[in-house]
């Protein structure tokens, strides 16, 4: 038998003059951050370095190189299976170090021993969108391609979805489905739906932990100091292949244009003298002027003089 416990929460607090609210969305739908506002100068993508638990430093540039190599390996599917696996594991490791969101509320909660039967428990956290109508709560909880929500699910052991009005990206499709079967949640206000399938005593701990993390995640930070948003934008740029490190050695704006001249109107090309008929025992002749290169086996002064005159006539000839 499956027991369902439904609770409703409205999260609303004020700190530093900013109303705080929480929201989330089902990352099963494809969200591409189209609604994220453009970051200002202090939020632009910059080089980030983080240190892993084993003391190794990772950078965004290193992750960008790994993603590039991953695409190159995809050109040869099934040929380098072990290399693909190693690259994918390294990408996951570096990404977890660079873009790991801090949802922690101190030490990880200790789960008690299971008591009772496993059941499905649910919690609702309503999103106060009226206080922040222009804030993109859905994009913040999802992260680029659902990566933030996936991390939140892994840490809490709960399934997180968004339901209610405004939970779908396609507003026309939402209006078409309103009132239909299995779409009853569209009649409710925008809210976070948390599912936990566990024993009652363990589910209580997991749900409380998930609610706490969601509240902390969806606190609108002051403009220009949103570290989570900066990481999400950077990770999205890496996924789309549009990331450009700020510390580039050469800038296109600093490159001085170089004038190109036609080689036809400059010094004529050297003439290579054929060694046919040359005496292989004679020493090499010195180099002649006007870039006339003589054979190293020819030592005739008259012959070199004739070549020199031909070269001068060629240089003085008008160009057609």
How do you describe this structure in short?
The chain has 320 residues and is an alpha/beta fold. Helix content is 32%, strand content 12%.
Task: Please tell me the total number of domains.
Answer: 2
Q: Architecture of the largest domain in CATH? A: 2-Layer Sandwich
Q: How is the largest sheet built, in terms of strand order?
A: 1-6-8-7
- Percentage beta strand: 5-15%
User: Biggest sheet, in brief?
Assistant: 4 strands, mixed
In the CATH hierarchy, the third-tier topology of the largest domain is known as Ribosomal Protein S8, Chain: A, domain 1
State the share of residues found in helices, binned by percent.
Answer: 25-40%
Task: Explain how this protein is built.
- The chain has helices at residues 60-73, 81-98, 137-142, 147-156, 171-177, 200-217, 227-240, 301-316, and strands at residues 8-10, 13-15, 18-20, 49-51, 57-59, 119-126, 159-163, 191-198, 271-272, 292-293.
- With 320 residues, it is of the alpha/beta class.
- The chain folds into two domains: 8-240, K Homology domain, type 1 (Ribosomal Protein S8, Chain: A, domain 1, 2-Layer Sandwich); 263-316, no CATH class.
- The protein has a four-stranded mixed sheet with strand order 1-6-8-7.
- It is elongated.
- Residues 11-47, 249-258, 280-285 and 287-294 have low confidence and may be disordered.
